Amino acid sequence: MVRLSVDMIAKSSTCLKNKGNCSLAQYLKKLTHLNFSNKNIEHIDDLSMCKNLTVLYLYDNQITQICNLNFASNLTHLYMQNNNITQIENLSALQRLYKLYLGGNSIMVVEGLEGLRELRELHLEGQRLACGEKLLFDPRTLLSLSESLCVLNISNNNIDEIWDLVVLKSLTHFFAAGNQLEDIKELEVVCSQWPQLCQMDLSGNPACQKPKYRDRLITVCKTLVDLDGKEINDMSRQFLLNWKASKEAKKKMKYERIRTAQMVYPFPDGVVRRSL
Fold this sequence. Notes:
By secondary structure, this protein is α/β, with parallel strands linked by helices. Helix content is 26%, strand content 13%.
């Protein structure tokens, strides 16, 4: 089993090149960035000597469990995409974590992020799920991220509804391409509750084939500037807003005419009859 350990760090070419005359302990204490991507690592050993670590690259390995990171209270960026991780766990000590990359693993539930008040980006695209399974969300985790999370990537995870995500009030970028989202009304309601949303990608979902899909989302997402990789300019948005206002005005006028007619010509069965 290949383990990421202090000994492995000490034998790395980066350490041998940069350590200079200082001791290994001094070098590890000063270390802020550590890159051990694509090294066939299966386990993380005790790295508590790296107390000032801020960025850790461990993508493209064989890691099955997030562990032994409690020491990394200064960590801001964690890259663990394309491993064999099945559960988000043991991250509660990373109070300064800003970006978390976990795409391409085998995670079934988005959980274990309670208390990470500084987390701004969460990348969970392309989980390797069993046939018929979809990525699920723990409401407690979503609520804990409601004020901080700005970027969420959940593309290609068989997701068919996003009602639970409505609490993420600070989202600016939402990527959910290649899922099974179909309900346009649901998308309108949820996205309208994200007042800072500026970029969204829903390409490859069944909803994209529905009539007026793009128009409907543009009119409810007032700050959106990019939808499915296509820019939204002010002129097209204003045209759609005017069109929607006109449509609603006509609908209201029709309702008022029917209501007035019912008041003037009331019938017991509630039907308005026209005189010949």
